[in-house]
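Section 5.1 Outputs to date
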Amino acid sequence: MIAIYAASTATAITHPHSQAEPNARTRGDLTAREVECLKWSAAGKTAWDISIILSISRRTVEHHLDNACTQLHAVGRTHCVAEAIRNRIG
Protein backbone atom coordinates (compact mmCIF):
# COMPACT_ATOMS: atom_id res chain seq x y z
CA MET A 1 0.00 0.00 0.00
CA ILE A 2 2.84 2.37 0.82
CA ALA A 3 4.48 1.60 -2.52
CA ILE A 4 1.26 2.42 -4.40
CA TYR A 5 0.93 5.69 -2.49
CA ALA A 6 4.59 6.57 -3.10
CA ALA A 7 4.33 5.81 -6.82
CA SER A 8 1.14 7.84 -7.12
CA THR A 9 2.71 10.79 -5.31
CA ALA A 10 5.87 10.60 -7.43
CA THR A 11 3.75 10.61 -10.58
CA ALA A 12 1.78 13.60 -9.33
CA ILE A 13 5.00 15.50 -8.64
CA THR A 14 6.70 14.68 -11.93
CA HIS A 15 3.58 14.95 -14.10
CA PRO A 16 1.23 17.40 -12.38
CA HIS A 17 -1.17 17.62 -15.33
CA SER A 18 -1.59 13.85 -15.74
CA GLN A 19 -3.67 13.71 -12.53
CA ALA A 20 -6.23 16.23 -13.80
CA GLU A 21 -8.66 13.81 -15.43
CA PRO A 22 -11.99 15.34 -16.40
CA ASN A 23 -13.89 12.41 -14.87
CA ALA A 24 -11.76 12.11 -11.73
CA ARG A 25 -13.77 11.44 -8.61
CA THR A 26 -13.58 13.70 -5.62
CA ARG A 27 -14.29 13.29 -1.93
CA GLY A 28 -17.95 14.25 -2.31
CA ASP A 29 -18.68 11.22 -4.47
CA LEU A 30 -18.21 8.67 -1.67
CA THR A 31 -21.01 8.11 0.80
CA ALA A 32 -20.35 8.28 4.52
CA ARG A 33 -20.80 4.50 4.76
CA GLU A 34 -18.32 3.88 1.92
CA VAL A 35 -15.77 6.07 3.70
CA GLU A 36 -16.45 4.27 6.98
CA CYS A 37 -15.95 0.87 5.34
CA LEU A 38 -12.73 2.11 3.72
CA LYS A 39 -11.41 3.31 7.08
CA TRP A 40 -12.03 -0.10 8.65
CA SER A 41 -10.50 -1.80 5.62
CA ALA A 42 -7.42 0.40 5.98
CA ALA A 43 -7.23 -0.74 9.61
CA GLY A 44 -6.89 -4.33 8.36
CA LYS A 45 -10.44 -5.50 8.98
CA THR A 46 -12.07 -8.04 6.66
CA ALA A 47 -15.55 -7.56 5.20
CA TRP A 48 -16.88 -9.93 7.84
CA ASP A 49 -15.17 -7.97 10.65
CA ILE A 50 -16.56 -4.70 9.30
CA SER A 51 -20.04 -6.20 9.03
CA ILE A 52 -19.96 -7.12 12.72
CA ILE A 53 -18.62 -3.68 13.73
CA LEU A 54 -21.21 -1.77 11.68
CA SER A 55 -24.09 -4.22 12.24
CA ILE A 56 -24.69 -4.73 8.51
CA SER A 57 -24.31 -7.77 6.28
CA ARG A 58 -20.97 -8.85 4.84
CA ARG A 59 -22.42 -8.50 1.36
CA THR A 60 -23.42 -4.88 2.09
CA VAL A 61 -19.87 -4.12 3.22
CA GLU A 62 -18.51 -5.69 0.03
CA HIS A 63 -20.99 -3.60 -1.97
CA HIS A 64 -19.81 -0.38 -0.29
CA LEU A 65 -16.16 -1.26 -0.83
CA ASP A 66 -16.77 -2.21 -4.47
CA ASN A 67 -18.57 1.11 -5.05
CA ALA A 68 -15.66 2.99 -3.48
CA CYS A 69 -13.22 1.10 -5.71
CA THR A 70 -15.24 1.98 -8.79
CA GLN A 71 -15.55 5.64 -7.85
CA LEU A 72 -11.84 5.98 -7.09
CA HIS A 73 -10.87 4.02 -10.24
CA ALA A 74 -9.06 1.42 -8.13
CA VAL A 75 -8.40 -2.17 -9.14
CA GLY A 76 -8.56 -3.63 -5.65
CA ARG A 77 -9.19 -2.80 -2.04
CA THR A 78 -5.57 -2.02 -1.23
CA HIS A 79 -5.38 0.28 -4.23
CA CYS A 80 -8.69 1.82 -3.19
CA VAL A 81 -7.40 2.56 0.32
CA ALA A 82 -4.22 4.07 -1.19
CA GLU A 83 -6.30 6.29 -3.51
CA ALA A 84 -8.48 7.38 -0.59
CA ILE A 85 -5.36 8.34 1.35
CA ARG A 86 -3.93 10.15 -1.67
CA ASN A 87 -7.17 12.08 -2.15
CA ARG A 88 -7.34 12.82 1.60
CA ILE A 89 -10.70 11.09 1.97
CA GLY A 90 -11.81 10.38 5.48
